[in-house]
Amino acid sequence: MTTTNPITSAPDGRAAERAAWIFYTIAAAGSSIGQIWVGVTIPPWPATMPWWARALLVLPFAVVVDLGGVVTAAFADARRRLGETALGWQVLSTASATGAVGINIVGHHDIPYLAVVFGGLGTFAYTVWLMHSAARRRDALRAAGKLAPTAPAYGIGQWWREPAVTRRARDLALQHRYTVHESLTEARRRLREERRTAALAAQVETLIRSRHKDPTIATIAVTTLDIQAVATTLAAQSDIAGWARAIAVDLAPPPVEKPEPAVLPEDTDVVPVEVPKDLLRRVPVQQADYQRWRDIWQQMLKTPDDTNSVLAAEHGIAVRQIQHIRAAGAAGLLDSPMPPVQRLLHLLQQPNGHHPTLPAAP
């Protein structure tokens, strides 16, 4: 497993930071404009006071009401980074933001559009600020080691297919900083080992209980021993290769017994055995060469595990010729001490009126 830290490496969020500030500034400005509008039109100002003078008087208070929620939220965020709850600051921040939104909604109640627009802008600005500050607080705490890193995203499909595996993979990724595929592979392996160890532990407990006739003593023995540790040790000491070899011996196919050639009566019509013509042409006609083929074939029968390459190197011939010898022997063309062509000619010379067949080996 790798030791890289793809979980804690956060992507560059400077573009999102700038976008958040821009949207917050626009929304806060809109909320302040709505409050100034209310302050200019609702209070009983003297009729001689121009609207711009009213706006100048209302402006500081509107800005304070709007920024009050943000300032108190910033104080709360700073204290929460230090581990405090900052409940008082949070309550004060919420009250200030609620007052700003309420002024816009109540002040523009006669025009629902303006009430929704200015009230929504105030709510949006305050919500963006809270979410933005919360994200920065989590990043700071995670960088300081006071907050756990985030786990990889496994997707809905993975959670649906393997909920137990995905849950374990998530814990392993957080603990060992694995990637998605590394954590899933390790989780599957550990779950398999746990299931195998649990099954083995149950059998170990049964074995320990069977060693004691007194059930109380058996219970004490089982309770005293760490059954899981015994099962884990047994699994570590198991001879996997030895068991594989033993099972492979039992799975080996049985030897095929070669049937004895049938002795046919002379007056029986026999259909000649079809032998590949190409293979029959390759069998030597000369007795010395044919006998060598027979000797090599007999060695193949005695040592069936020898490969074609080993036999070719031992007898100084090509691997292709070893393949021809093996095919001819399997077809029964090397059973007789007489080459097949000579045997065929010998049968053709017998005037018995029967179809010629290759005689059986004496």
Could you explain the architecture of this structure?
This is DUF2637 domain-containing protein. The chain crosses the membrane at residues 21-45, 51-75, 87-107, 113-132. Keywords: Membrane, Transmembrane, Transmembrane helix. It comes from Rugosimonospora africana. It is a single chain. The chain has 3 domains: 14-143; 163-238; 277-348, no CATH class. 69% of the residues lie in helices and 0% in strands. The chain has 362 residues and is mainly alpha-helical. α5 crosses α6 (163-176), α7 runs antiparallel to α8 and α13 (308-315) packs across α14 (319-330). The chain has 15 helices and no strands. The two termini are 68 Å apart.
Any key phrases for this structure?
disordered C terminus; transmembrane helix; membrane
Shape descriptor reads elongated
End-to-end distance: 68 Å
Report low-confidence residues grouped into runs of 5 or more. 6-10, 262-273, 355-362
Average residue pLDDT: 80
> Helical region count?
15
Q: Could you give a short account of the major beta sheet?
A: none
- Helix residue percentage: 55-70%
Which H/E pattern describes the elements?
HHHHHHHHHHHHHHH
Outline of the structure:
The protein is mainly α and about 350 residues long. Helix content is about 70%, strand content about 0%.
Chain-wise SSE layout:
Layout (H helix, E strand, L loop, with lengths): L13 H28 L9 H31 L5 H21 L4 H32 L11 H7 L1 H14 L3 H31 L4 H10 L2 H11 L2 H12 L25 H6 L4 H16 L5 H8 L3 H12 L9 H9 L14
